[in-house]
Design a protein that fits this description.
Shape: globular
Radius of gyration: 26 Å
Number of strands: 23
Number of helices: 6
Structural class: alpha+beta
Order of helices and strands: HEEEEHEHEHEEHEEEEEEEEEEEEEHEE
Distance between the termini: 73 Å
Length: 429
């Protein structure tokens, strides 16, 4: 005898199997029609027992209970998506960790994968003990607690950050997108306008620079033009909706949209308003641009337009000829991205890529181009143009102007070579 509950259950199971069979057929049909045949091949760790129309193992028992992971972590199957940190550095206190750009989608970098650059390790700062001092050419010197800072009207904006040494001009070049330009990330930042805080203190005549100092053991110090401080600069305490991670300057950092990364001083403890830049260690012994005639340019603030294809990119492999979407990111310190062109024939011709909305000022912009790969060797690359009309140059064009001694601010086009077997490698390596 079969009761009503059994009938309902059997009917539901039968319907589900029919739906799965039908869906499988539809998906399979779409796959074949799209030229992606080959995706049904089993990997070494795959079991057909979990494929439609069978009920997979994870549906046969309840999952983890509520509270087993109160903060939340990525799936264990994504454990390989982590920061790219070299394993052979002589020390790790003044070092960097790169974002795995080739493994990410969209434009927002997860906080845990945001690139890092430290000069004396990551300090552990109690926000209740942290203070921001504002002094110098102001009507009244002020010392703020974190609660004081958060009493100012807040705002949230999406901006990228990029290290000025991303990447080097000289070989050996990186193998992956992360190796090349992984000192780049983008987040939604929340904080207060620096202009409001400066107005609270009152700027005096002669105030031309603000010298920002971090509370790390390096005491990293940079001089910021007053024009930038009164424009879009922010004092930031949150990133992607949560308080800053210690690696990103907890509890307070400076954000200067479009300026090179090291100027966005982390663990911010002091702002001194001055008539002249301070010519700190970071402004003399490093972060200067050595010109072809041997002289050094002291300050290079804004990062130029740049782009890179992240899929397919170095270290990846095209499994089969047919349809493949080319996708990547573009950005400019001077404002919005106007357009991105993509070449699939080693720069002989270019096609306009689609830009993903929204296209924001001084933020990453995702671009896409549908591509049918014929299985022959190819070289693909992208070229960004920003709203000022500036066009991303080739590496040869940059070197012709800047010479071999230049170290920072490499925004060259970077090509990927695709072999007949589908392997993707750095075409400049």
């Amino acid at each position: 005898m079969t009761d009503t509950a059994d009938i309902d259950e059997n009917t539901a199971a039968t319907s589900r199997r029919r739906f799965l069979c039908k869906s499988g057929a539809l998906v399979g049909g779409a796959v074949i029609a799209g030229g992606l045949a080959g995706s049904e091949a089993l990997g070494a760790s795959e079991s057909a027992d979990n494929f439609p129309p069978n009920v997979p193992e994870w549906m046969k028992t309840p999952g983890d209970p509520m509270g087993s992971n109160p903060y939340g972590t990525p799936s264990p199957f994504e454990k390989g998506v982590i920061k790219n940190i070299p394993k052979n550095l002589s020390q790790y206190l003044s070092a960097s960790g790169r974002t795995p750009l080739q493994d990410l989608d969209g434009i927002i970098t997860p906080s845990g994968l945001f690139y890092e650059r430290h000069h004396a390790g990551v300090p552990t700062i109690d926000p209740a003990q942290h203070r921001l001092m504002l002094h110098g050419l102001v009507d009244k010197s002020l010392i703020f607690t974190m609660d004081d800072i958060r009493r100012f009207p807040s705002e949230s904006r999406i901006h990228f950050l990029e290290c000025s040494g991303n990447p080097s001009y000289k070989k050996p070049y990186g193998k992956t997108a992360s190796d090349l330009v992984g000192l780049l990330s983008c987040a939604e930042w929340t904080g207060v306008s620096l202009k409001l805080v400066l107005q609270e203190a009152g700027l005096q005549a002669g105030a031309k620079w603000v010298v920002a100092e971090g509370a790390d053991a390096a005491g990293l110090t940079r001089s910021i033009p007053i024009e930038k401080c009164l424009d879009d600069a922010m004092l930031v305490y949150s990133q992607n909706g949560e308080r800053l991670r210690p690696q990103q300057g907890y509890p307070l950092r400076l954000l200067l949209p479009g300026f090179e990364g090291n100027m966005n001083v982390k663990w911010l403890r002091r702002l001194r308003v001055a008539a002249e830049p301070t010519y700190s260690r970071e402004e003399t012994s490093k972060y200067t641009d050595l010109m072809p005639d041997g002289s050094a340019r002291d300050f290079t603030f804004y990062l130029e337009a740049k782009s890179i294809i992240t899929r397919p990119s170095g270290g990846q492999r095209l499994s089969t000829p047919g349809f493949h979407e080319i996708s990547g990111i573009a950005w400019s310190g001077h404002g919005k991205i106007r357009g991105v062109d993509v070449s699939v024939d080693d720069g002989k011709s270019w096609q306009e890529a689609q830009l993903q909305e929204p296209v924001l000022t001084r933020a990453l912009t995702r671009f896409r181009l549908p591509w049918h790969w014929d299985g022959q060797p190819a070289v693909i690359q992208s070229r960004a143009t920003d709203e000022t009309g500036y066009v991303q140059p080739t590496l040869a064009e940059l070197l012709a102007v800047r010479g071999e001694n230049y170290y920072y601010h490499n925004n060259a086009i970077w090509p990927w070579r695709i072999a007949a077997g589908g392997e993707v490698t750095n075409a400049n390596a």
